[in-house]
Amino acid sequence: MTAVRRHGLFLTIAIWLVLLLAGLVVDEWVLALLATYFAYGIFAMGLSLIWGQAGVLSFGQAIFFGAGAYSFALVTLGMLPWLGDSIAMGFLLALAVPTLLSGLVAWVTFAGRGLSGAHFAIVTLCAAAVAETAVTRADFLGGYNGLFGVPPMMIGGEMLEVSAQYFIMLLVALGVFAVLSLIIRSPYGTLLQAIREDENRVAHLGYDTRWLKSVAFIIAGALSGLAGALFAMQFGFVSPSLVGFALSTQVLIWVAVGGRSVLMAAFLGALIVPGAENTLSNILGDIWLLLIGALFVLAVVASRNGVLGALLRLPDPERFGRNADSETQKG
Description:
By secondary structure, this protein is mainly α. The protein is built from 13 helices and four strands. It has one domain (about 5-330): ABC transporter involved in vitamin B12 uptake, BtuC (Orthogonal Bundle). The protein is about 75% helix and about 0% strand. The strands form two sheets. The chain has a two-stranded antiparallel ribbon with strand order 1-4. Helix 2 crosses helix 9 (about 245-260) and helix 2 (about 30-55) packs across helix 10 (about 265-285).
C-alpha cells in the first residue's frame, strides 16, 4: 500500500468520524440540511458504481430516485390501501419499483440492444424527459404539484428529533458506502473496472459484459430508490422534478466534481456542491450558476478523479490484468 493510498484510507475514516461528531455539536438546522444531503450522497454513490467503476454514463438516474420517492409517498399516504400505510412497506416498495425499472432498462438497452457509450447516455436522457412528462400529467401522482404530507421518521407514532434523524441517515449512508466498497473490491468489482478500461477485452475472455453491467445498473437503481425514499421522508413531499433530467444532470455534476471513480469523493461531492449552491445563490444571485458550471468543466477537464478523488482513493483490489492496472494507476 503506497503512502498516497494510506492517506486516502486515513482521510476517509477521518471524514466519517467528523460527520459523526458533527451530530453532537452542530445546530439542528445544519443537521437537518446535512441529513438531506446524505440522501443525495447515497444517490451519488450509486451513480459512482456504474459510471466511475463500469464506465456507464447514465442521464436517467433520477427516474429511479423519483420512483423510490413516489413509491414511498404513495404507501405512507395510504394511497395504495392494499399495501397498508407503514413506513416499512413504503421502503420495501421504494426498493422494489426502482429495482424492477432499472432491470427493465438494463434488459432493453444492454441485453436487448447492446447499447453503450453515447448511445446509452442519449437513451437514458430521453427516458428521463419522458418520465418527468408522464408524472406531471398523472393526476393520481399529484400532477405538477406532487404529493404533500409524507410522514417523517417516527418511532411509536412520535417524530424523531433532528439529531436522531441525522444519525440514522449517517448510519444508512455509511452502510451503503461499506457495501459498495466490498462490491468494488470483490472479483465482480474488478471485472467492472476492467470493462471500464476495455470492454471488448473482457468479452473476448469469455465474460458476459452485458450481464455484468446490468447487475451494476440494477444495484445503482435500487440505491437511487432508497435515496429517493429517504429524501421524501426528510422533505415531506415529492414532485415531478425528482424524476426528470435536471436532477439526473445535478447528480452527474456532484459525482464528477467530487470524483466519479472514488465512492467517498462522490459522496462528498453530493454534500459540497449542493451546499455551495445554497451559499453562492444567496450571496451572488444568478451568477452562482456560472461558478458551478465553471467548477464542473474544470473538474472534468483537469482529472477524471475530480477535485477529491486523488486524495480519497483507497487501496485498489487486484486488477484484471496488467493493462487494466496500468491504466487505472494513470487515472
